[in-house]
């Protein structure tokens, strides 16, 4: 067997392709990593607190206005979704994305993200995608707390309207453009408060345009979630129904807006430069 001559003081060269960090990671693994990052973040506080505040405010408003509000599940559900659809949900999404991006803006995390086997665009999309899980959890908690309040505290007969659950879950799909937009803002701004403040401003604008024009409401992500959450509600006169005429446009705008804002997010992440 021929002998190989390797100097004792010089280590044998290692191929770059053999190093663990050079191995291209898989998309499911990246999603898992980003989901694990959420465990110690502020995300779950938002998921827990916002539905509680929403149901409490809706229950108090319903109980204090019994002389003008019909004592029905439909009326109670309308009171819950009124302020939630107009204010709380969009602000919650802004808080969720700001909390998710906060670790990447601290120390050298942003620069390390750019050196991983995954492209910055893939990391940004994965981080944004996993936020849809807390959004869905927040909606499920809203449904459960509304049902519990109606049964235990307000003593309403019958059951929670199916339409309320449908509109609450439809809002998860309608939130796809808003999640992309707020993720883009939170990615580009190191401040935690700045993207949340812009989200609040967008929410205020969204209230003004939500029911002025359906086309404008579809283009503006904050208005789109308002329309989704208030479909079938008797608290607003122009809320729209839970039929295809009401649901179809929301789904179409969600797909179109999601494609626009998530593509913009990926492109902006790919062009991001390391920070000092």
Helices, strands, pairings?
Elements: H1 27-37, H2 43-64, H3 73-101, H4 109-113, H5 120-130, H6 132-152, H7 162-174, H8 176-188, H9 193-209, H10 214-219, H11 221-230, H12 244-270
Helix pairs in contact: 1-5, 2-3, 2-6, 3-6, 3-8, 3-9, 3-11, 5-12, 6-7, 7-11, 8-12, 9-11, 11-12
Protein name: Lantibiotic ABC super ATP binding cassette transporter, permease protein
Keywords: Membrane, Transmembrane, Transmembrane helix
Transmembrane segments: 42-62, 82-101, 122-148, 160-180, 192-211, 244-265
Number of helices: 12
The portion of residues assigned to helices is 55-70%
Mean pLDDT: 85
Count structural domains: 1
The string of secondary-structure elements, in order, is: HHHHHHHHHHHH
Report on the biggest sheet: none
| Weakly predicted, low-confidence segments | 1-24
Strand content: under 5%
The structural class is mainly alpha
Q: Rg to the nearest angstrom?
A: 23 Å
- Backbone shape: globular
Gap between N and C termini: 53 Å
Strand count: 0
Transmembrane segments: 42-62, 82-101, 122-148, 160-180, 192-211, 244-265
Protein name: Lantibiotic ABC super ATP binding cassette transporter, permease protein
Organism: Actinomyces succiniciruminis
Keywords: Membrane, Transmembrane, Transmembrane helix
């Amino acid at each position: 067997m021929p002998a190989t001559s390797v100097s004792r003081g010089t280590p044998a060269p290692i191929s770059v392709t053999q190093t663990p960090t050079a191995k291209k990671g898989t998309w499911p693994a990246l999603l898992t990593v980003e989901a694990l990052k959420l465990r110690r973040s502020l995300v779950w506080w938002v998921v827990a607190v916002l539905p509680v505040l929403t149901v409490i405010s809706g229950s108090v408003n319903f109980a204090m206005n019994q002389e003008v509000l019909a004592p029905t599940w439909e009326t109670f559900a309308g009171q819950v979704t009124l302020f939630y659809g107009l204010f709380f949900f969009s602000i919650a999404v802004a808080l969720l994305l700001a909390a998710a991006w906060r670790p990447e803006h601290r120390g050298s995390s942003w620069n390390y993200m750019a050196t991983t086997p995954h492209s910055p665009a893939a990391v940004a999309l994965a981080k944004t995608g996993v936020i849809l899980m807390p959004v869905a959890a927040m909606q499920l908690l809203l449904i459960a707390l509304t049902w519990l309040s109606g049964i235990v505290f307000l003593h309403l007969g019958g059951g929670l309207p199916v339409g309320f659950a449908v509109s609450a879950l439809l809002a998860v799909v309608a939130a796809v453009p808003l999640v992309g937009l707020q993720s883009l803002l939170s990615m580009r701004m190191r401040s935690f408060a700045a993207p949340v403040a812009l989200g609040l401003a967008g929410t205020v604008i969204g209230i003004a345009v939500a029911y002025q024009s359906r086309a404008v409401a579809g283009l503006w992500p904050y208005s789109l979630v308002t329309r989704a959450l208030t479909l079938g509600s008797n608290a607003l006169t122009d809320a729209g129904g839970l039929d295809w005429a009401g649901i179809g446009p929301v789904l179409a705008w969600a797909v179109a807006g999601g494609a626009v804002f998530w593509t913009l997010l990926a492109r902006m992440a790919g062009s991001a430069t390391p920070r000092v």
